[in-house]
């Protein structure tokens, strides 16, 4: 049997890490018919848009996709293609495992966290009004007329919607995962002490869902700033984390740092009947085209994809091969060497080749 998968190589280091992932997944023997889609900066040059409709059509048709990172201009320019993909395909659950692999620069070998980030709303919704626009002025006038706290006229505004529907389905997803995978505890992360309505609603909904799992899975909630401190001091106390979109984005990079860096942190974006896999890291433009960066995060995203299509044996073999290469510490990229300037560090493609050689 062969699977059709949309492959979005992306920008910057994307094509290099996506190519390395493709090589490793193919080497497992699972037959994949890759449908390559141009997105990001390459698509702007070719089609005048970073996300052509044909890309969405490909993912909707194949229902499985894997992508490299896609760059987003900071402060100006087009909106994030990554966010557009998640919203347009309703990939509501962002799943980011964070675990220790022997050989990485990890100070916490006990870490084995699962992060579930809501993927469609919150400040990430992209509902914004720029300074001095008619919309921003009207909004400021309306809001200033509704309550005592006054928004300054020289403000830009970003809206933070949090709904019961989206909070419920991400929290439920986290609990169902915990039950299915023998996890013990779910921690909801929020700032409901300050954002009493939006984060308050997320927390209330999380408590309601938790009650449905009482006796099976333990539940606690932690305020996001405290959570950051707890994670860098005693991450072993945590098991499954569930967060609204923005906190999920920040905390998952923090957790990637705990287990050895962005180079090894994979991710998945899951919807009702579709899934898109991608590394947590971005397009790292300064390394683009240098065959230098670590392909592990994208290869492990490939492992998540293999598990999603129920090719568990191939997934285990590929994960074990990655584990073996990192543990050996010889054919690894600069970020996995004790010293970043180590001349024995290998390139992206050479590390992928070493992983293929370890596949049994
Ligand atoms: P980044 O993740 O691209 O890079 C930050 C740093 O992390 C790099 O300079 C590098 O030191 C390290 N790093 C990242 N990937 C690595 C790898 N595979 N191996 C070794 N080291 C690695 O973050 P950034 O510089 O903030 O963002 C660059 C661009 O990526 C921006 O345009 C941003 O919008 C985009 N981005 C995209 C995604 C996505 O596609 N999902 C995610 C995050 C950022």
Mean pLDDT: 96
- Tertiary shape: globular
Structural class: alpha/beta
Order of H and E elements: EHEHHEHEEEHEHEHEHEHEEHHH
Q: Output the CATH homologous superfamily of the largest domain.
A: Isopropylmalate Dehydrogenase
The number of domains = 3
What's the CATH architecture of the largest domain? 3-Layer(aba) Sandwich
**Unreliable segments of 5+ consecutive residues:** none
Termini distance?
20 Å
Roughly what fraction of the amino acids lie in strands? Answer: 15-25%
Question: What does this entry look like structurally?
Answer:
It is a single chain. It contains twelve helices and twelve strands. The model has no long low-confidence stretch (mean pLDDT 96). The two termini are 20 Å apart. Helices cover 42% and strands 17% of the residues. The relative contact order is 0.17. With 360 residues, it is an alpha/beta fold. It has helices at 14-27, 40-47, 53-62, 81-88, 134-146, 164-180, 198-212, 224-233, 245-258, 296-308, 312-328, 348-358; strands at residues 2-8, 31-36, 64-67, 93-99, 112-118, 128-129, 157-158, 185-190, 218-223, 240-243, 266-270, 275-279. It folds into three domains: 1-93 and 265-360, Isopropylmalate Dehydrogenase (3-Layer(aba) Sandwich), CATH 3.40.718.10; 107-121 and 163-258, Rossmann fold, CATH 3.40.50; 125-160, no CATH class. A hairpin with a 4-residue loop joins strand 11 and strand 12. Helix 1 runs parallel beside helix 12 (348-358), helix 6 runs parallel beside helix 7 (198-212) and helix 11 crosses helix 12. The protein has a ten-stranded mixed β-sheet, sandwiched between helices. Strands 6-7 form a two-stranded antiparallel sheet. Bound molecules: nicotinamide-adenine-dinucleotide. Residues 17, 69-72, 82, 262-263, 278, 281-284, 293-294, 297, 335 line the site of nicotinamide-adenine-dinucleotide (NAD). Nicotinamide-adenine-dinucleotide is lined by residues 17, 69-72, 82, 262-263, 278, 281-284, 293-294, 297, 335.
């Amino acid at each position: 049997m062969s699977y059709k998968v949309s492959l979005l190589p992306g920008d910057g280091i994307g094509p290099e890490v996506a190519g390395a992932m493709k090589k490793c997944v193919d080497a497992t023997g699972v037959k994949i018919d890759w449908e390559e889609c141009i997105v990001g900066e390459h698509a702007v040059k070719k089609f005048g848009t970073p996300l052509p409709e044909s890309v969405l059509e490909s993912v909707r048709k194949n229902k499985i996709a894997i992508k490299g990172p896609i760059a987003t201009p900071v402060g100006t320019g087009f909106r994030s293609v990554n966010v557009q993909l998640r919203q347009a395909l309703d990939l509501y659950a962002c799943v980011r495992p964070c675990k220790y692999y022997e050989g990485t620069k990890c100070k916490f070998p006990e870490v084995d966290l699962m992060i579930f980030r809501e993927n469609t709303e919150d400040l990430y919704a992209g509902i914004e009004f720029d300074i001095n626009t008619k919309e921003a002025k009207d909004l400021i006038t309306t809001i200033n007329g509704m309550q005592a706290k006054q928004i300054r006229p020289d403000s830009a505004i970003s809206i933070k919607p949090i709904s019961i529907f989206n909070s419920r389905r991400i929290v439920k997803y986290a609990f169902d995962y915990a039950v299915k995978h023998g996890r013990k505890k779910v921690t909801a992360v929020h700032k409901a002490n300050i954002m009493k309505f939006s984060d308050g609603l997320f927390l209330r909904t999380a408590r309601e869902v938790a009650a449905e799992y009482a006796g099976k899975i333990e539940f606690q909630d932690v305020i996001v700033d405290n959570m950051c401190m707890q994670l860098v001091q005693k991450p072993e106390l945590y098991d499954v984390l569930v967060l609204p979109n923005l906190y999920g984005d920040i905390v998952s990079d923090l957790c990637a740092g705990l287990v050895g860096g962005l180079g090894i942190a994979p991710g998945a974006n899951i919807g009702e009947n579709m899934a898109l896999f991608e590394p947590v890291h971005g397009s790292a433009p300064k390394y683009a085209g240098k065959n230098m960066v670590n392909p592990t995060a994208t290869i492990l995203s490939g492992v998540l994809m293999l598990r999603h299509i129920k090719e568990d044996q191939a997934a285990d073999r590929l994960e074990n091969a990655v584990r073996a290469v990192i543990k050996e510490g010889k054919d690894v990229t600069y970020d996995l060497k004790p010293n970043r300037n180590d001349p024995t560090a290998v390139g992206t493609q050479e590390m992928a080749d070493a992983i293929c050689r370890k596949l049994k």
